[in-house]
Design goal:
227 residues, mainly alpha, globular, single chain
Length: 227
């Protein structure tokens, strides 16, 4: 029988490699022949695909990142009888792979869809409630970045109220920290010369952008950036 530690290493490696598959980047290349790292937020995720490739492509990209990268990796860990802590670590590894994929020189997505998939297995009820909340608020206010961030935090809050296990609460906290770090890092996008570090920090943390308006941020192209 294969030693348990070796199985864990294999699953962790698989989780990172699967999370690293740049789904949105590949769709951008195959459908429009563009490098999404040079468009909009530079984010390799569903929102940037919707903005620069087509809204119809958001669903398959989001679905793959949610179910295959996030949920499936945790489910595999569960079928191997790993405990909740190890399931969470494997899920977090997939999120890290999505956010910092080696295939595209560590330029990735924000990790929200993959993190949601992880929480769908570990905290299904809380995740579904918060996903519904984020969807409704996004439809009403036409802005997803703020509400998605709030919904992730709400998963933790609901978990505390519903008696979610301590292990899953800790995992949720680590996921929130990971998503926050990715927002602030923003794929090493160069800071606009007229924006202070303090303002940049606030914009990235709250609005997930570097400039004053969402439209200006999401519609950036290589040509506009060179001007």
């Amino acid at each position: 029988m294969m030693p348990e530690i070796l199985i864990i290493v294999i699953v962790l490696t698989y989780s990172y490699c699967l999370g690293s598959i740049p789904t949105a980047y590949l769709v951008g290349r195959w459908v429009r022949g563009i490098d999404l790292r040079q468009y909009g937020s530079g984010n390799i995720g569903g929102s940037n695909v919707a903005a620069h490739v087509g809204k119809a492509y958001f669903i398959p990209v989001f679905g793959f990142d949610l179910f295959m990268k996030g949920a499936a990796t945790v489910f595999i860990a569960r079928t191997l009888d790993f405990g909740e802590v190890l399931q969470g670590i494997i899920g977090i590894t997939a999120v890290i792979g999505h956010s910092w994929p080696f295939y595209t020189r560590f330029v990735g997505g924000r990790g929200v869809s993959t993190a949601t998939g992880v929480l769908l297995i570990l905290a299904p009820l809380e995740s579904l409630v918060c996903a519904g909340f984020a969807s409704i608020m996004t439809i009403l206010f036409k802005k997803s970045t703020i509400w998605v961030g709030i919904s992730i935090i709400l998963v933790l809050s609901l978990g505390l109220l519903s008696g979610m296990s301590r292990e899953v609460i800790y995992i949720s906290i680590v996921l929130i920290i990971t998503l926050t770090l990715k927002r602030l890092e923003a794929n090493h996008v160069k800071r606009p010369s007229d924006v202070s570090w303090k303002l940049l920090f606030i914009r990235r943390l709250i609005f997930d952008r570097d400039v004053s308006t969402t439209e200006e941020w999401t519609k950036r192209t290589p040509e506009l950036q060179d001007e």
